[in-house]
Structures are given as C-alpha cells and as structure tokens.
Design the sequence.
C-alpha cells in the first residue's frame, strides 16, 4: 500500500529469530530518488502473521494480524515527524474470541476510518459467514462504529475477505468470495 512518499509492505510468514511466522511490516519513505526503509517491526509471538494485510494513508498505517489466539488483531502505526511508532494502537475483534475468526485478514485505512475484515467469523449459527468492522479515530483511540454483516449472508460466504474504504466520499466495499462459489461485493456508505 502506498500514500504520498510512504509505502508499507507486509511479510506475514517472516520469522523473528526462533519465533516462526510472527510476520512483519516495513515502512519505506521515498527520498526523491530511492525508497529507504524507515521502520520495521515483527508480530510478538509465533503464528501472529503480522502483515497479512496492510494499508497506509497519510500519517497512519494499519497491519492485520489474523493469527493471534484471540481471533485476530490489527496494529495501527502513527507517523510523528518522520518517525513511525511501533504499535501505537492495537485493535481487537469485536465479533468474539474464536481463534480462527481471522480478524485482520484484510484491512483498509482512509482518513479517520479503518475497515477490517474477519472473513471466517460466525454470524449467529452461520459459520464462516464473515464480518467487517468499521472503526473511526476519536481523539487518540479507534472506536468501533459499526459491525457490518451481509443481510443475505450464509454459511461459507467469507464476507470480509477483501475490504476497501475511501473517507473522502464516505464509501466502502466488502468482498464475499465464497458467495455461491462466484463471489459478490457489497457497497456501503459511512454515516
């Protein structure tokens, strides 16, 4: 993902010494002639898969960690004067704590909004239907605005497998790649 002179890249199967698949993210800055690495961090424990998905917009970046034992997390990084902070904020799933929900499997940030997919989350009795969570930055915190589900969703839809948001037009799109084996997209508006 790229925004202005900054880019973020994820490596979800990167190892940190003896810890396997912690995952990592790197943030690069364009100097005018070269891309220079400014920041790198790893997931804290094995299997976190940090960087499975990444997104950057202006002075904020987000990285999905769908492998955490609580069903997944997302790490938010902040740029303050060309210095990126490690884990300035951690967003956890609001759909429950099932270890295989895959919260953070896809992320998108735009302005003060973050959209996070959880494509294996159950909705009621529909397993693997999937959800997406919309967060808004309020003061220094990211607060849940809405848990989004597909009203016509069913088991095995994998809703939230892909997400994207654009704060300038207050619109988002969420993919459900398992929908009747053909997939579908749901469009929405941030109120």
Sequence:
């Amino acid at each position: 993902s790229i925004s202005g002179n900054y880019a973020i890249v994820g490596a979800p199967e990167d190892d940190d010494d003896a810890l396997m698949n912690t995952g990592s993210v790197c943030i690069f800055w364009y100097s005018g002639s070269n891309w220079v690495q400014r920041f790198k961090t790893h997931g804290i424990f094995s299997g976190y898969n940090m960087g499975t998905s990444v997104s950057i917009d202006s002075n904020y970046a987000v990285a999905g960690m769908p492998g955490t034992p609580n069903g997944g997390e997302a790490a938010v990084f902040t740029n303050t004067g060309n210095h990126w902070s490690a884990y300035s904020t951690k967003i956890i799933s609001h759909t429950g704590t099932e270890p295989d929900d895959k919260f953070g499997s896809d992320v998108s940030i735009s302005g003060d909004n973050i959209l996070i997919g959880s494509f294996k989350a159950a909705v009621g009795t529909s397993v693997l239907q999937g959800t997406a969570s919309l967060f808004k930055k309020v003061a220094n915190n990211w607060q849940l605005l809405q848990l989004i589900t597909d009203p016509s969703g069913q088991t095995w839809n994998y809703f939230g497998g892909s997400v994207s948001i654009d704060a300038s037009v207050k619109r988002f799109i969420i993919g459900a790649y398992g929908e009747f084996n053909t997939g579908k997209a749901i469009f929405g508006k941030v109120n």
Remarks:
- DSSP finds no helices and 15 strands in the chain.
